[in-house]
TrEMBL record:
GO molecular function terms noted in the UniProt entry: GTP binding; magnesium ion binding; tRNA guanylyltransferase activity
Name recorded for this polypeptide: tRNA(His) guanylyltransferase
Residue ranges of the TM segments: 466-488, 500-526, 532-551
Keyword vocabulary terms for this entry: GTP-binding, Magnesium, Membrane, Metal-binding, Nucleotide-binding, Nucleotidyltransferase, Nucleus, Transferase, Transmembrane, Transmembrane helix, tRNA processing
Length: 690
């Protein structure tokens, strides 16, 4: 039976008002269609029998308008040429409409699970002990502890092997509960600590390449779901550790890995316990708790010295410090309810977990995909880098070494991930473009956002795929913004008697498609929209970028110690056409120019003796020409004579093939500082976006 939870099979329905996301999109488009008064009322339902739901459809006109604006000659508008801000706002900023809102709505509980990427290979290269390397596990535990210290809204963590799960307090407003921000920041900081603290645990081992992690948010609708999740992860810890202990004892006794795996195939818990005891004299229950049960990090109140009085007397206060504990049943009432911090921030477990609910596990494992046949852009931004730059004494307004460090990270990303064909960066941000047919991570975004789901037939196996509609019980229209923007999408729908077949059509308006389906089959609801979003693709790139940043720090700042661990956040946006992708990149370069010109003026004013607030007041409302005149007053007669990297940012891309250290051919990745707004750049490098 197909999923029909969000569909009511009636002949007629009342359509509720548009969600806020669509109100914003329609509002944007209405400026160009004069339909302001229609959208507030939501969609219009035609009289019964017409089988058609009609929306005001200004979005296509809006897209066409923006396209025409993008082709205008700047000389046509003198005010625009004098004010880059106006150009950025009116000409290119429409690309922001492709970003999706990904707030995890209250009262859902937020959990972020971080896991090692390709850690089997990483453990072999770095010669970790099998089946458990105690130093590695302690390093992972330190990373988890550091995360709880850094982010007070995280109140509990559980981990084993190469993974850790972090639970936020129920009332958290951490980064406005935006899934992309939350998950990417956690995995980035976790990675940063892992690389930074490596030498403390492995003083004799050099990191041979940057380790990286992936992350995903788990949304728990209730405390009961969280309890099931924790039980599931600890059960997985036990099963995995017991299996691996048997495997490596068999290998140590002379078996090959394949032979050992064949012996263990199909064995149950008791059989594995007997194998360990009878063949190797190992009582599984006596193995270290950290191996068998995993590690919990939670916050407990302790008394600590916060300062000293004038006469030297210590002044003590109660504070919450992370503590690592072990328990055979972290989802049990006896463990959970004895910790006041968990009861206060998350709630009380009212019963113990027996058999884990398989439906919950399905939700924990759910993975969706990004829109097919679109350009994926992963944008990374430094977290609180204003403070980071001050603590590490970066030069103002631009620190060339800091920018080159960022560039080295971008180069490493392109070398690590061949599907990334272009990147553009400025200051503490970088945007990475994946090729349009990329199957990186199988385009798994690990999120459900803006899914409009309507069952048009039940009784067939349910199948879903972003951007594709298969014969079956479920039709999913993800990211309706893109669908409204006239993307060609392959549609195939089997109706009740298979007499109607939809092949390939232009989706200008979703209700246009729905109107072709008999109304006694389909009524749809706005409550099919989910607000859970984050990309596995994003987390891997953010983590790898962070890892390289920390590892390369000394190469660019040999005289500076890294005083604390940096972190980055990331997001993924899909752009349906090359033209819109180029407009996105143009938007970032225009923003680079605007910010650099402003910051150059700002720091010149500060160096001349003004306070920062005075400098801000002086610059408020100034236009590009006024800033040029201000710079001339400071002796900078030609703004364009400033280093091109400061003014135009950095472009990183593949350029031809070169032999690697083993003699095999690989792509040569180069860094250039060029004008990517102009057509000439793309004509000189046609292979980048082909």
């Amino acid at each position: 039976m197909g999923h029909i939870a969000d569909v009511t099979f009636l002949r007629q329905a009342t359509i509720p008002p548009l969600p806020k996301t669509f109100e914003k999109i329609y509002s944007m488009a209405n400026k160009f269609t004069g339909m302001e008064n229609d959208t507030a009322q939501g969609p219009k339902v035609q009289p019964r029998g017409t089988r058609s739901v009609v929306y005001p459809n200004p979005l296509q006109a809006a897209l066409q308008h923006y396209s025409s604006v993008g082709q205008q000659n700047p000389s046509q508008s003198q005010s625009q040429s004098q004010s880059q801000v106006l150009m950025a706002n009116s000409k290119y900023e429409y690309v922001k409409s492709f970003e999706v809102e990904d707030e995890i709505m209250f009262p859902n509980l937020i959990v972020v699970r971080v896991g090692g990427r390709h850690f089997q290979r990483f453990s072999e290269v770095h010669e970790f002990e099998k089946p458990n390397d105690e130093k590695t596990l302690k390093l992972m535990s330190l990373c988890a502890t550091s995360v709880l210290q850094e982010y007070p809204d995280i109140v509990f963590s559980f981990g084993f092997s190469d993974e850790y799960s972090f639970a936020f307090k129920q009332t958290t407003k951490f980064y406005q509960r935006r899934a992309s921000k939350v998950a990417s920041i956690i995995v980035s900081f976790f990675t940063s600590v892992y690389v930074t603290k490596w030498k403390e645990f492995f003083p004799e081992k050099e990191l041979k390449y940057p380790p990286s992690f992936h992350a995903r948010p788990i949304v728990c609708a209730s405390l009961e779901v969280l309890q099931e999740y924790l039980a599931w992860r600890q059960q997985h810890c036990h099963i995995t550790n017991q299996h691996n202990t048997c495997l490596w004892e068999l290998v140590k006794s002379g078996k090959t890995e394949k032979e050992a795996l064949d012996i263990l195939k199909g064995t149950q818990k008791q059989e594995r316990n007997e194998l360990l005891f009878q063949q190797f004299g190992i009582n599984y229950r006596t193995l270290p708790q950290m191996f068998r049960q995993g590690s919990c990090v939670l916050k407990t109140e302790v008394e600590g010295i916060v300062k000293y009085s004038e006469n030297g007397t210590p002044i003590k206060r109660m504070r919450k410090d992370p503590t690592t504990v072990h328990s055979k049943n972290i989802a049990g009432r006896s463990f959970w309810n004895e910790h006041q911090s968990l009861l206060k921030e998350l709630g009380v477990f009212t019963k113990d977990v027996g058999k884990i609910n398989s439906d919950y596990i399905r939700s924990f494992l759910f993975e969706s995909k990004l829109m097919a046949s679109t350009w994926i852009v992963i944008r990374i931004d430094g977290c609180h880098f204003h403070r980071f730059s001050e603590v590490h004494d970066f030069e103002k307004p631009n620190d060339e070494q800091a920018l080159n460090l960022m560039n080295s990270c971008a180069v490493a990303v392109l070398q690590e991930f061949p599907d990334v064909v272009f990147s553009y960066g400025v200051s503490d941000e970088y945007s990475f473009v994946l090729k349009k047919d990329s199957q990186f991570c199988q385009r798994k975004a690990r999120y459900t956002l803006g899914i409009f789901q309507a069952d048009i037939q039940f009784g067939l196996e349910e199948k879903q795929n972003y951007g594709m509609f298969f014969m079956g019980s479920s039709v999913s229209l993800p990211n309706l913004c893109l669908s409204f923007f006239s993307i060609f999408t392959q549609l195939s729908a089997a109706l009740i008697d298979s007499r109607i077949s939809l092949a390939s059509m232009l989706v200008a308006d979703v209700p246009q498609f729905l109107s072709l389906i008999p109304d006694f089959l389909l009524i749809y609801h706005w409550n099919s929209f989910s607000k859970i979003t984050y990309s596995n693709i994003v987390s891997i790139v953010v983590s790898f970028f962070t890892s390289v940043y920390v590892m390369n720090w000394k190469a660019f700042f040999p005289q500076k110690e890294l005083k604390y661990c940096p972190a980055f956040d990331g997001r993924a946006v899909c752009y349906p056409s090359t033209e819109i992708l180029r407009d996105y990149l143009a938007w970032r370069q225009v923003d680079c120019h605007i910010n650099n010109q402003y910051n150059t003026c700002f720091w010149m004013l500060v160096k001349s003796g003004k306070s920062k607030s005075e400098a801000q007041r002086t610059l408020k409302g100034t236009q590009a020409q006024e800033k040029k005149e201000m710079l001339a007053w400071f002796g900078i007669d030609d703004y364009n004579a400033l280093p091109v990297m400061f003014r135009q940012g950095s472009s990183v891309f593949q350029d031809g093939m070169v032999p690697d250290e083993n003699g095999a051919a690989c792509y040569k990745v180069i860094v250039e500082h060029c004008n990517i707004i102009e057509q000439s750049f793309w004509e000189e490098h046609p292979g980048i976006l082909e």
